[in-house]
Design goal:
This protein is of the alpha+beta class. It has a single domain, classed as Orthogonal Bundle (Cytochrome-c3 Hydrogenase, chain B), CATH 1.10.645. Helix content is about 45%, strand content about 10%. The chain has 13 helices and 8 strands. The strands form 3 sheets. It has a 3-stranded antiparallel sheet with strand order 1-2-3. Strands 6-7-8 form a 3-stranded antiparallel sheet. Strands 4-5 form a two-stranded antiparallel sheet. Strand 6 and strand 7 form a beta hairpin. Helix 3 packs antiparallel against helix 12. The termini are far apart.
Length: about 375
């Protein structure tokens, strides 16, 4: 029996409602926010909001000495901080006319590729969790910790290394370090079949990811997509090969690509990159013992270093895509201007907004993780 004061509420047959992913939500990367408008379970509109994490890195760099910024830039991309150190150092080296010793260049390549491996393991775990496959997340975080152990031994820091400085690296590799790197790579290679069975070929994941968040190669180019996300559309473009830096032109590796341009293809590209990074690091281990000499070139007193006036642009390939630094000096002890061209400012805003629109609610988190963005880089 209905109460006497009951009044029926007539809802329209179809209505829209809004839902916030983030800034505190397990299906989002970092303290990020994606505001979606839904009709039923279909996304009809999406707006990214990156203003919840780190603010104003580029402006902060103008108030710090050249050397002090090395401690700041890794925070622009926490899961893969080494490329930020590297691109900034390369730009400052160009301004200062510094010649980096060959041994330091090989060590830098090793650190870059170890960082790529660690970042991909982290991404696999997060992506798998968006489809309910939490075991992959636990595995990925645990195996990534083994690479953080290597970074801690080499640099003194597990996450923020502050190791690459203008002119080279802070210190040489410890005794027995290359053997420990080899052992860790051997372990990861032995684990890859388990990852394949658990995640990459798991039909739950394959069916969820196939055809989800698809973009064409033309769209990718128009939207400014770079790195694995672009290579997942079939374009064999990699700064390490096309515009070599450090000693990448002396190293043999393949550029991983896929054709479909969907979440499945983007994941497979990163899976292939794991093996290529292992291959690159093994070549460094083989070559490094025979390369002697210094690990950095002399620079003036870093607390009173006036870098010559000019401008420089340095770019490299990271696990997230192309990272570039545009640095301007007026001849003082601090940068006049620093601009970071990072991949996430494209991937986590216009690309994400376009790919989730028209999709289903349950695929929003998966599409974001398949793009592998760094939220603080958007808010830099």
């Amino acid at each position: 029996m209905r109460p006497e004061n009951y009044q029926a509420i007539n809802h329209p047959p179809s209505h829209e409602y809004e839902l916030n992913f983030g800034p505190n939500h397990p299906g989002i990367e970092g303290n990020y926010a994606l505001k979606v408008k839904l009709q039923g379970d279909q996304v009809v509109e999406a707006h990214a909001d990156g203003g919840y994490l780190h603010r104003g890195f580029e402006k902060l760099m103008e108030g710090r000495l050249w050397i002090q910024n090395i401690a700041l830039v890794p925070r622009i991309c926490v899961p893969d901080p080494v490329p930020m150190e590297m691109a900034y150092s390369l730009a400052v080296e160009e301004l200062g006319g510094l010649e980096v010793p060959i041994r330091a260049q090989w060590i830098r390549v090793m650190q870059l590729e170890l960082s790529r491996i660690a970042a991909h393991l982290f991404t696999f775990g997060g992506h798998a969790a968006t489809t309910g496959m939490y075991t992959t997340m636990y595995w990925g975080v645990a195996d990534r910790d083994l690479f953080l152990d290597l970074f801690e031994e080499l640099t003194g820091g597990r996450v923020y290394h502050i190791y690459n400085i203008p002119g080279g690296v802070r210190r040489d590799i410890p005794d027995g370090y290359l053997d420990r790197v080899t052992s860790t790579l051997d372990y990861l290679e032995s684990r890859l079949p388990d990852y394949d069975n658990l995640f990459f070929t798991n039909q739950v994941f394959v069916k969820r990811a196939t055809g989800t968040g698809t973009m064409t190669q033309q769209q990718a180019l128009e939207w400014g997509v770079t790195g694995p996300n672009l290579r997942a559309t079939g374009l064999k473009l990699d700064v390490r090969r096309d515009d070599p830096y450090l000693v990448y032109d002396e190293i043999d590796f393949d550029i991983a690509t896929e054709e479909a341009g969907d979440a499945w293809a983007r994941t497979l590209v990163r899976r292939k990159e794991l093996q290529q990074s292992i291959r690159i690091v093994r070549q460094v281990i083989e070559r490094l013992p025979s390369i002697g000499g210094p690990i950095r070139c002399p620079i003036p007193n870093p607390l009173a270093w006036n870098v010559p006036a000019g401008e420089a642009y340095a770019r490299i390939d990271s696990s997230k895509g192309e990272v570039a630094y545009y640095v301007v000096s007026t001849g003082g002890d601090k940068p006049y201007r620093v601009h970071v061209r990072g991949p996430s400012s494209m991937h986590a805003v216009q690309v994400l907004e376009n790919l989730v629109t028209g999709g289903r609610l349950e695929d929003v988190a998966q599409i974001m993780f398949s793009l592998d963005a760094c939220p603080p880089e958007v808010d830099r």
